[in-house]
């Protein structure tokens, strides 16, 4: 399954989740619910994956964590905030660069319609 096909399925699951429970919960609630749904659909989902920072060939574990990593292909960064800030987009792009992956999804569940809160971020490698 390509990254695009995978992201299409992930977005479908996220939209269904948001329709059922709506906005207003903590990020951890959305993360766990989405991970549950994706696993139930047969995907390999890792949660809170440590993302070390490599600086001058020294690996530093500085506490960065990827919310969801699906099929070792797509990173999902989950937010539940009033408005996404530029730093949220930069954070996901940095995770993509550090991991060597191409596609990430930034999802803000604190929106009336989740379609407004989903952003695809592509790492040009």
Care to give the gist of this entry?
This protein is 38% helix and 28% strand. With 125 residues, it is of the alpha+beta class.
Topology:
Blueprint: H1 3-21, H2 27-40, E1 45-50, E2 53-55, E3 58-60, E4 65-70, E5 74-79, H3 86-99, E6 103-108, E7 118-122
Parallel strand pairs: 5-6
Antiparallel strand pairs: 1-4, 2-3, 4-5, 6-7
Report on the structure:
The protein contains 3 helices and 7 strands. With 125 residues, it is of the alpha+beta class. The strands form 2 sheets. The protein has a 5-stranded mixed β-sheet, sandwiched between helices. The radius of gyration is 14 Å and the shape is globular. It starts with a helix and ends with a strand.
Number of helices: 3
End-to-end span in angstroms?
A: 20 Å
Measured as a percent range, the helix fraction is 25-40%
Biggest sheet, open or closed, and with what strands and sense? 5 strands, mixed
Helix/strand-derived category reads alpha+beta
Beta-strand fraction estimate: 25-35%
User: What is the class in the CATH system?
Assistant: Alpha Beta
Shape assignment: globular
How large, in whole angstroms, is the Cα Rg?
14 Å
Oligomeric category:
single chain
CATH topology: Trna Endonuclease, Chain: A, domain 1
CATH architecture classification name: 3-Layer(aba) Sandwich
Average pLDDT level: 93
Query: Strands of the largest sheet, in order across it?
Result: 1-4-5-6-7
Ranges with pLDDT <50 over ≥5 residues? none
Give the number of domains: 1
**Secondary-structure element sequence?**
HHEEEEEHEE
Strand tally: 7
Descriptive tags:
125 residues, alpha+beta, Trna Endonuclease, Chain: A, domain 1, five-stranded mixed β-sheet, two-stranded antiparallel sheet, 28% strand, GxxExxY protein
